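Case study.
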Amino acid sequence: MTATADPGARRDVVRQSLSVGVATGAYGISFGALAVAAGLDTWQAMALSLLMFTGGSQFAFVGIIANGLHAAPAAIAASSMLGIRNGLYALELTHLLGVRGTRRVAAAHLTIDESTAVAVAQDDLRTSRLGFWLTGLTVFALWNLSTFAGALVGGHVGDPRTYGLDAAACAAFTALLWPRLRDRDAVAVAVVGAVVAVLLSPTVPPGIPVVAAAAASLLAWRAPSREAA
Amino acid sequence: MSLWTAVLVAAAIAFGLKLAGHLVPAHLLDAPRVRRITGALPIALLAALVATQAFTGPDGSFVLDARAAAVGVAVVALLLRAPFIVVVVLGAATAALLRALGWA
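After joint prediction, the assembly is written out as follows.
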């Protein structure tokens, strides 16, 4: 990575950040609606989006707490297992971002799939940092606004799958991984990670397959990865 | 446990996990081999995330449905060097269309 960024790369990262933010934000509507349907009030739904701020964990939490308060420990356990991967992203992001103090705390809060994916998709350090902050802040703003809207309108929200929003997320993450897959070692890491996660999914709790797939990164141990041609 | 307690405890753990990764002392992560591994971590995790989101059902079993088709279309679009937004919109449209037609 170099420290410079050409205007084209800047424009691309801004587009990526904003489109990821809009797609994720749209999903917040369904989170807000689901949270209220699960028995949370609007402020509890907002507390999750503002303070937990990691979509997969939030959906798991409300999905389980819908069974009643006795399910609270299971809901906390599920959201926590899904949150482990953010801590692993942070190991790389902390290098990439190079921030301390309050900014590091803010960076930690914004450490999610989307901000990480946009950051690591960039070729140089400056666009990586811009991508991380812009994606994190855009998702944070839109996710919270849409959670609020979803909690207010509740059951009148349609299923986001009707519009293919779940598939939009899959396509976006695929597109963000794509530039990294020019490197043969990275392809091996991605394929092994994907296969491990899919194989484990039927037998272990949600969240764990993806974290277990982190072991695929050990493939990078052996030799310096070959740079893209 | 009240619902509020559960919400706040779960949120605190989620933030703690994020912060813990950022607070690992830099000197522990500086060795070239460790750098290579942490650099590969997001690739492994995001590939696993896409795979589980696209190819597994609610019970975790392997499923090929509209989401898999959407990822397939996204990969073709990427091979044709389509811009990011086009890839995302094509993915969404593929899944929405297949579902509207009742095919997946």
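Observations recorded in class. Residues 50 and 71 of chain B are 9 Å apart (CA to CA). The radius of gyration of chain B is 19 Å. We will return to this complex in the next lecture.
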